[in-house]
Amino acid sequence: MITLDFGALAARRPTAQQSSSRKSLSQLSLAVARSKRIIVITGAGISCSSGIPDFRSSDGLYNMVKSRYPDVVMKGRDLFDASLFRDPTSTQLFYTFMAELKASIDAATPSPTHRFIKTLHTKGKLLRSYTQNIDGLEEQAGLVGTSSSAASKKGKGTLKNLKDIKSVQLHGDIHRVRCTICSAEYRCEQHHVEAFRTGEPPSCPDCSVRCQDRVARAARALAVGTLRPSIVLYEEVHPLGDEIGTISARDLSRRPDLLIIMGTSLKVHGIKKLVKDFASAVHNTPPPSLPTRNKTCVNPFSRKVVFINRTPPAGEWEGVIDYWVKSDTDPWVQKCEEDWKRFRPADWEVQGTLVGNPILSPNVPSKNAFKVVKRTPRAVKRELAPTWHLLDFPCTDYLPKYSRQRERDQTESRG
Fold first, then answer.
1. Mean per-residue pLDDT over the chain, rounded
2. 207 is in an annotated binding site
3. How many domains does the chain have?
């Protein structure tokens, strides 16, 4: 594993090692710009600049919970373990804490890192983003997530349009609530948050309706579930586990050419396996075919695994992660975009077209004049179709007719 110190960029008189890091960081930016199927895996570190604390740092959520409830939890992690529901006191604290966390998340906006992932998608380079975060900032940045309404859920815990999902939420979404019995899901509204703040979860509307219907028919009443935040705790099974498995298997088969890991300590078992699977797929992806004269132009960062985080990865990642960029994620993505625009400015150009011109495009309404569009071959063909008649050759009726006899007569007259 090679370490790239982002602080080398600030050195006025860089050492040889710092100069090497500068060059490597620029090469990494170029690799991002050239890649076509990038997998991004993120953790809580990418949301810190948005005002949402991470989990394991000195001022993270685990230490916050431990200092606030020392008589209830031994470790901060205990409040995120499914076993907490066995004790009424810890259950009440869980709901109260979730209400506070939801309020802080509602006030947050996407960070530069979230917007960078969206940029990768816009530029057609993002194969998929996998996040451990429950804040939903990826969706706020413009990516369709597994809990998004645009994912077109049908039934309970089933996704319809897997191909439209660009952000896989591995630990659920705090912006949704789920019934503890029937698994019905709802958007988390303000009245849900107010109920959580008191420590008492609201009842499930679906369960309540079914129970009332049975009572009205003089049948035995059914148990009514309660609503809880639709997040995945430790020792819990993800309600969309099968669908997420299908998505990841599909992505593994599509030969990703770059794996970027940002803002995570890589200590959760599930994320460890996911990273190792994608790292193996990236390393085994064949290089692009290039002419013999260009073999030396292959970027050393292509088909690599890059880890961007302030703290180093554990020793078990030696041989899995190729490069560790010692940095917060926001400064790195900002440099990456700057280098990308400098190395490949054409990727950032948006070509304008004048539509609404009564001569060139008579069928286009004038209100769409000077519309800026992204040019694609299909779009160009569709837009130019009404004006192709302007490019026709003159009608053959106005041209002199050709015949071999006329050619012989003209030859004899010249002779």
1. 82
2. no
3. 2
